[in-house]
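Team,

Forwarding the record for the chain on the shared tracking sheet. I've put the sequence and predicted structure together so nobody has to dig through attachments.
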Amino acid sequence: MQKYILGAACALILAPSAVADRLVTDISDNRALSHVEEFHWFGGENDFSAGISFADFDGDGDLDIANVNGRHWPVADLLLLNNGKGRFPMAAEIGDWRTTGYGGCPADIDNDGDMDLLVPRDWLAVGIFQNDGAGHLSEAGTIGAAGHARSCATPDLNNDGVADLVIADRGGASFYAYGPLAPGVETHPLTDVAAVGVATGDLNGDGKSDIVLAMRGDATLAVLFAEETGYADPVLLGRDDLQSRSVAIADWDGDGDLDLVTAVLTGSNQVYLNNDGDFDRAVIIGPPSEISAGVRVTDLDGDGRPDAVFANEGQNSVMMNGIGGARRILLPGENDTYDLDVGDLNGDGMPDIGFANSDAPNTLFFLIPTGDPE
């Protein structure tokens, strides 16, 4: 059985944006967003980038970049190695074949201490790429059957200390698998909804990882609560005309439970607020004209509250989650952005942002202290 919940909405006051070759937009008294264009482009207009992930693949203590490309067309995926300062002077193609990649999930799937990579793909099974410890990723087989995978997550679903896998499949073949993740691992059907994004977290405080799927049709999100074995039927949130491609989980309102920050393709971005495992109210955090394909949450201004970064068709945006309400900042450049990730790329202790742009070079934005000449 599927349950539907329609949320109420509140208003949003929008802040003005600033655009320049080098953008410095005040976020708080001591931080700013900065984009240095000439150093931080990678990929090209023919790459159809659909995924970007930050992780330490070569074991040197900084975050490298896995750039997954293709979507419906075979394109090479790329691993870029960080020199510790947010520069990426070395890169290599991932695997022997160019494939139809979407997303990408770094995880130590074989418990050998280094970061491997799982790649969901269109018309192909999920690809496994194992790390030799120095950042060389080699094809090691596949998981599941060929389908229409769009996104992945690698939580520890059964609390055994080993990474598991959840795949969102637009064709209705979403599944999960318990680790260790290896070729031929048993997969378990999840639900037949048309899912394109996935996030996991303990939404009802029972100590188990629940699953949230972003949907293209029928509703905005599907929430699947963990049971003693397996998962309950999905609880559908939102309307069928508010389609989503990505969802992030964070305590947006600071009440101690996890809310659902949702990128919406066909309307305003939303936060579905958690009330003891029920999501009976939605808050609007963007204009209806914004077409958002991806979202990540991070504390950009150091106030202890999660902020949201959205990957858009057009200008990408940041939604600052202040005590007095949300404030929107537009970033420079207009692209068809499919995915993003956040993390400290240059070792200054502040989160940076990477965007995977389809039909255009990819971009990195760095959060730096206001007035810093670099």
